[in-house]
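Hey, I'm writing a tutorial for new members on how sequence and structure tokens pair up, and I'd like a real worked example in the thread rather than a made-up one. If someone can provide the structure for the chain below, I'll link this post from the tutorial.
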Amino acid sequence: MFNKKGISLLVCILFLFGLAAGCGSPAKNEEKGKLTYAMSGLYKPFNYKEGGKLTGFDVEIGEEIASRMGLEANPVTNPWETLTQGLKAEKFDAIIGSMAITDERLKQVDFSRPYYRSGAQIYIYEKNDTIKTADDLKNKKIGVVKASTFRDVALEYTSEDKVTGYDSDVIALQDLPTGRVDAVITDKMVGVMGMKEGLKIKEVGDPLYVDEMAIAVRKGDSDLLEKINKALEEMIKDGTYEKISNKWFDYNILGE
């Protein structure tokens, strides 16, 4: 059998194994009775803070999904450009933050069915008469949210040094009257809400394209993805989705 030295060595080995187990990947929040879902918190009216509390369309969609899964909703914020990495690092279970489905993102995450559709819209200061079509953006200063698909669109019209990245679409839109940027490309609904709240901006033409927004989960997390899709389908079928959409936008933004 073991001598005293051997027993001490065995205890040390077992202790180290215990530490390793304790330092492994954190348990999913879903397994703790919560659905933790992330967003930037800077994308009004989809997700933003009011009185220190997260609110908005994305937040309420997440709350309803969590409820139908029998879980507590736990919305959290992370900088937009770090959301995908945070998801892969298991900081949260899902991203419910108005993330568009793209081929590049599909390499890193799995997406649910679309939960709304919207377009990339050009906005300018309401007194700007020099930009009347998308073609007029050539060589202009354009504001977009950092690491968004809107940045790629902006680069189709102007050079990289003339594209300014913002943490928030609203801050970018607020910059239009200052002249720091000539135009902002963002989600149509963000601009519509901004105009309703008094931002002195206006649309240029029709949306440049239509995005399908979906909920992102970690690659291979098929169980969670199936539950989210089931909840979404139920919400759409029983009218709950439309009720939430009407509350924020006065119409069904899924377009089905």
